[in-house]
Amino acid sequence: LVRSRGLGDVYKRQLAGGLADRFDRRAVYVAAELVRGLLALGMAYFSERGEIGTVLWLHAARGGVGAVSDTAMRAALPTYVPSHELEAVNRRLGTLWSVAFVIGVLGGGVLVAQSSPYVAFVVDGITFFVGAAAWLTLGKALPEAHDEPSNASYASRSTEIPSTTYLRAPLALVHGAAFVLTAAHGKGAIVAPLAIGLLHGGRALGNAIGAELGNRRSMLFLGTPIGIAGVLIAVYGSTPPSNAAVAPIGAVLWGLGMGATYIFVTTTLQVEVPRRALGKAMARDTLAFTLAWAVGAITASVATGPCHLAPSSIVLALAIAALGAFGVLV
């Protein structure tokens, strides 16, 4: 499931950047969210029929379309928000996302445990339609070339990829592995959804904390190391016979790192990259994140499956690689 979504994301990233830099970003976002809602309803229909393979294909497609809406949303924000307020608004959005995520994962876990995935998918699909309707109340977000940032050196180097676009990739590597490894040891039809919901609810709580972590410089230098440490703790606590009580602590730290790095990268790109190129810059950031995430997920799947390696040794090796890559980037 993780791999199907990740590959769907990768396929659409460059397309997302081109669309966001060519058309009204509000229209691109709304159209993508409507398609995602329909795909979620399709997942509900086929899950009820027991056609899990089709559900996975729809999930991959939904991930790809999500790449379009995510890129358009982040590129559109400077149209509605003055540059000096972007960091504060991104922090608020990060906190609101975390609250919604907690409600979603916990509510989804309860729905799956008490009823079926069908109900959870239907509710999920409806949320996309609600979000699209809310965005229609905003004005257009055209990718105009005016209102460039004061640091417009990027405009004269339009073919150069800003190094900032790679800064979320190291944490994404262990993030992808952790998704697989923490889910792999859930036991029982009822216990597993609730346990995973609680774990990622804790991650969302950390995400909210990370969104409020000091200034942007603190977010850069503290976010990734703290997030990697959190992943190590979460995976250790999720692997029998370890002490499961430490898993939520790790999840909070994991989310803290994710939230801090997201706010830093998003705000930096929105402030420093000219509006006409912002879609491509956001797409490259999420492409780097998704590729690293998919590599981590696939590595964990293969290592714990055919290779029968211990989860703790897998995530430790990936954590060392991630810290090394982070050191090179900064």
State mean pLDDT (0 to 100 scale): 78
Query: Separation of termini?
Result: 32 Å
DSSP strand count: 0
Helix content: over 70%
- Class from secondary-structure proportions: mainly alpha
Low confidence ranges: 6-11, 149-160, 187-192
Strand content: under 5%
The geometry reads as: globular
The arrangement of helices and strands along the chain is HHHHHHHHHHH
Main beta sheet: strand number and arrangement? none
Rg, please?
19 Å
Q: Count up the helices.
A: 11
Descriptive overview:
The protein has 330 residues and is mainly alpha-helical. The chain is 76% helix and 0% strand. The chain contains eleven helices and no strands. It is globular and about 55 Å long. The relative contact order is 0.16. About 7% of the residues have low confidence.
Précis, in short:
The protein is mostly helical. The protein has helices spanning 2-20, 25-48, 52-80, 86-114, 117-135, 169-183, 191-211, 216-238, 246-272, 278-304, 311-329.
